[in-house]
Structures are given as C-alpha cells and as structure tokens.
Specification:
Structural class: alpha+beta
Order of helices and strands: HHEEHEEHHEHEEHEHEEHEHHHHH
Number of domains: 2
Low-confidence stretches: none
Largest sheet: 6 strands, mixed, barrel
Helix content: 55-70%
Distance between the termini: 27 Å
Mean pLDDT: 82
Shape: elongated
Number of strands: 11
Strand content: 15-25%
Strand order of the largest sheet: 3-4-8-5-7-6
Number of helices: 14
Radius of gyration: 33 Å
Amino acid sequence: MRASLVPYLVKRFLRFDKDQPFIFLSALLAFLGITLGVMVLIVAMALMNGFDKEFKKKLTIMNYPLTIIPKFYGAVNEELLIKMQTKFPHLEFSPYVQSAIMARNGSKLEGGYIFGVNFEDEAKVNSVLAKAITKGQFSKFDVLVGKSLKDEFNLYIDDKLMYIFTHVEPGGLSVTPKIKRFKIKGIFDSGLSAYDKAYSYTTLSSMQAMLGLSSSQYDGIHIYSNEPHKDILKIKEFLPVSVSVKGWWEDNVNFFAALELEKASLFIVLMLIILIAAINIISSLLMTVMNRRSEIALLLSLGATTKEIKKIFLYLGIVIGVSGILAGIAFGMSGLWILSTFDIVSLPKDVYPTTTLPLDLSLKDFSLIVVGAFVIVIASSYYPAKKASEVDILRVLRNE
C-alpha cells in the first residue's frame, strides 16, 4: 500500500480541480510550451543540418575535394601527375589550366574563371560536369558554361561567346588583352548560382595554346577522394616542396564557422522557449503545494516521509515535462515528414543549392534537444518539491 502512495497522489494532483482551475491551466500551459519548444527545435535543427549538408555537398563538388597547386616557384607538370597516379591509384586526378576572364555578350560583361581540362578526366572528379559532358563532344575552343551565365546572356548551344583574358600580349606601342571567341557546346547546373555564373570549362589544349604553355605544364590538379581529410595528409608527405595540396574546406572556413555559430545561437534561443515553459511548471507546482498544504501536513503526521512528499511533487513536474517532450517529439517528427513528403515550401534556386527544404536531423542534435529539455524539467521541478517537503506540520494543522 505504501509503495503505491506516490503514484496515486501524483495522479490525483494532476486531475482538474473545479475549485482551483488556474492550477490545472498553468500546468497545461507548461505542457504546451514544452511541446512547442521541442517541436520547433527539432524542425529548426533539421533545417540547419540540411542546409549545412547541402552546401557542403555542392561546395565539395565545385571546389573539388583536393587540389594540388604550385607554390611561388613551383610547377605542376605531367611528370608529377604520373607519379601521383602511380602512388595513389584509388584517387582520381584531373589536371587543369585556369585563367581569370571577362565573358562578354553584346553589352553585358561577367567576370569569372575559365578552366582548361581533359573532359574525360574531369568527369571523374566533378559529378556536376559529368552530367553535362558527352564523350567526344568537345573540340578545341569549345566551352561548357553554367546555367546562370547562359540565362543571363540568353545563350544557346553553338552560340559564340567572347572571353577577354587577363593575360596581355604586346601590340605595337601598347599591350592588349587576349580575346577569343569560344563556341558553346554544353550547359552545366551545379545548383549554386555563383559558380554557374563564374566558371567555364574548355579543353586543356585550348587554354595551353591561349596562355602559351607546353602540353605537359599545368596550373594544378583536381583530385577526387572519398576521404579527403585523410588523403590530404598522405599526399602532403609525398609531394615535393615546390607544390602544395589544399582541401575544399580551406576556402570555406569562415562560411561554415558562421553556419555553426548560427546553429548554436538558434539552439540556445529556442531552448529559452522550453525554459519559459518550465517557469509555468514551477508556478503550477508551487500553487499546488500552497493549495495542498493541509493534505501534505496530514500525510506527514500519518507517517509519510519528507522524501516521499518530495518525490510526489518532483514526479508531478516530471510527468508534465516529459509528456510535453514526448508530444513535442511526435509533432516535430510529423512536421519533418510533412515537409519532406509534400512540396509545401519552394526555395528560389538562384539563391539556395536546392529548391526543396533539405532536412537532416542528426542523432547528436536530437539527443541534445531531449536531454536539454529533460534537465530543464528536472531543475524546475526540484524547488517546488523541496518546498513541499518543508511544510511545518504543527503550524498548518493548528491553523486548519
């Protein structure tokens, strides 16, 4: 009988009291607040993770997992390429030559870079270009342009596009930039407008001819790796001092640091919703303690221990809080399913890397949400439970 005292009283105190309806209303508001907080946190963290993952995926492709570049006095050539292919057969390599350019069509100008590549090798390291490349399609001075540039300049396949190179050549008493018209032979779409507008790709021989380089000389080598963070360490040990290797993340450190800061800030702000809801738990339990003082005193006089009284109100707060957490998880997961199944929100493709909401709730974030909410519930329940166990039996019964 004694063992069932705590759960019995917890159930009794949770019932609606016609004489004190505000106590029940306060507990209900606490439940709803925690439910809302957990639900919003789950959806928000899934969205943040989804965008983070989508941006990383796109940036990895367009910036390439790893890139070998020369130092100030170094050179990247065919000899180094052959050595790398022999030493690391599990990696894919694509040598390139690049130049900063201005693309011109009529009166419109757009700055960017043009890469000279072997399209067969490039298709192995860049999945975006692989979709736009047809075997044997590209001849000398043919070019592959991004969808954003194509749309801005209103270009079509087999149109001519003028490129103004930053490299100059002497002409009489002055120097003039090199200018060449390339024929458009393909369109790629990375999903990132900045890259689609700035990057163009032509054949390796075209760029070597434009820049006066030998067929065995390159500006760098793009590398595809499934584990770039591990492979970069092995490659650094192998490379001569005249060249270096960089990972795609090294060019985007500040961007992803900002995303992580934004995610942490959002988590803290939304956790405050749960904290505010927990204040309702405190007020609800304190009102219950004040309203039930005579019952608490009577229980203590009949042999109930202060530990049991503390348990009653601690469990009362936990029931309200945990119920809110479970309801929040259910609604949050339902929201994620609805957002991922139905095209409710459509994003502008020229701004975001995807037109649909990317959702990815990690186990780490889910655990932090649940544990954080539970800790807040426990902390908010402890003080009222402690006050209930400190009721003065003689004073209360004398006044009653």
